[in-house]
Amino acid sequence: MTLEINNVTKRFGSFHAVDHLTLQIPPGEMFGMLGANGAGKTTTFRMLLGLLQPSEGTITWAGEEITYQRTNVVGYLPEERGLYPKLKVKDQLIYLGRLKGMEKKSILIEMEKWLEKFKVPDYANKRIEELSKGNQQKIQFIASVIHRPELLILDEPFSGLDPVNVELLKEAVIELKQKGTTIVFSSHRMEHVEELCQHLCILHHGKLVVNGNLREIKRSFGKKNVVIQADYDLSSLANQVGVLKYHATAEGVRLQVQDEGVAKELFTHIAAKGYARKFEVEEPSLHDIFIEKVGTTYA
Ligand SMILES: Nc1ncnc2c1ncn2[C@@H]1O[C@H](COP(=O)(O)OP(=O)(O)OP(=O)(O)O)[C@@H](O)[C@H]1O
Question: Number of C-alpha atoms within 13 angstroms, CB side, residue 148?
């Protein structure tokens, strides 16, 4: 059951929100979709769900086109949360679960399990409007997974959650992946994508600018980060050939260098100068790669 996005374009008038996008997401994958605001992530998700029709191209899940009628195989956590404030949690989940073709009894069984897992076992009879924003989000997440979808699409699942709830949600997502759910999620938080995804893509103005295995992406980027801590002045390193970025830190410097060769030269240079408490060569972070490819940073 592979998700295949074949040469998909979505135009609004003459504007290309998604531009000839081709992606294959294998079953059981946790796939990260990155992109600055307006890059086309939500538009892509809406097409995956059959809520929007591509202007060109096709999207298939397990070889069949996704239509709105088939969406009970898909779970969706939208970016704009959409619960009914006056409904009780229980009634809200029954309503949404039934739309996905579930029976009331199994909805209630699943609901209990999830409320327990999310450490809010007594919320079934609370009205949505009584819950904090983060807890409403947990309910919205439950609504997107209660029918055990094969494909789960999460638009910014961690936004607005405190660190404890981020961990709870991450654990839930990892567990779903282990059970075989294919998960596609967008996030502006690079560290979440680095932690959870082996594969990812970056969209820029609707086009794919990076796609592949995270480790491969980092390796092929070429540039490395070098962290040095020493008690003597390191500021001259800013002018060394091959040093692309220089940041002074509380205990030393953090550099971006052209390649591993430059890192080796720096090591020789530092070793000749005297004792350094730390000299570490790191792979670039996803943040570094994002900035380079998209040319902007997140707030
Ligand atoms: N219905 C629409 N009509 C016209 N333009 C639209 C419509 N929906 C989206 N767009 C435009 O398409 C582009 C992509 O929007 P989209 O919501 O997919 O971005 P995104 O990557 O999800 O951004 P964000 O990170 O801000 O959520 C934006 O420029 C947006 O204004």
Answer: 8
